[in-house]
Amino acid sequence: MIMADALTLPGLQHAFFTREGGVSEGIYASLNGGQGSNDTPDVVRENRAIMASHFGIVPDRLVNVWQVHSPDCLVVEGPWPGERPKADAMATKTPGLALAIATADCGPVLFADTTRRVIGACHAGWKGAFTGVVEATVARMIELGAQRDAIVAVLGPCIGPKAYEVGPEFVARFDEQSADNTRFFTPSARAGHAYFDLHGYIGKRAKRAGVGSFTDLGLCTYADEKRFYSYRRMVHRGESDYGRLISAIMLTE
What we know:
Strand content: 15-25%
Number of domains: 1
CATH architecture: 4-Layer Sandwich
Structural class: alpha+beta
CATH class: Alpha Beta
Number of helices: 6
Strand order of the largest sheet: 3-4-7-6-8-12
CATH topology: CNF1/YfiH-like putative cysteine hydrolases
Radius of gyration: 17 Å
Number of strands: 13
Shape: globular
């Protein structure tokens, strides 16, 4: 797993898990935490139990939402009683509950205000970031008592700006949102195409949300096959599916 210095704080546990250290095989090797993947369900449950053990909790307290690339953030007080609700972010003030985000190129962002004991986590792909999932997570945390400028936010492994090629419609969408967004694109060899800096764009949205500090670990999922799954790498290779990385944060008792 990867730890961030900015989140190594009293009363807090976190981890950006890599793909290493689990029991999955083949294209899912080895620590696949993706409940939406086509990996063997019992194997995914065992991987998630491995992750939960890092936090010292039972597996059902490693809580995910059903991610749909939305800006929606839910307040979580305990394990879901039934099917996971559809959303892309969570916030809580409940100790012993690990908020877990699944990614494979999108950006996992973990948040904490340790003074007021409020945490959050969001899944920020381009669509979620574009529509405000980072700001929505901060807003939910404030509803729970967090102070905006005391919130620490950390972006974990996601696709890097040298690997994320996009088409003209994608670029136009961001240009229409703000002229400032042009700084997140660099030309590619293909006419009308460009490389998109998702890391930088998420950082901009975190700054817009007013967090006290933002850290980008600067890790590219596409470039580092040994440690990370990548949806785009899977597409380029014509593989049938891909594993999911888990990033999680928890208040200790």
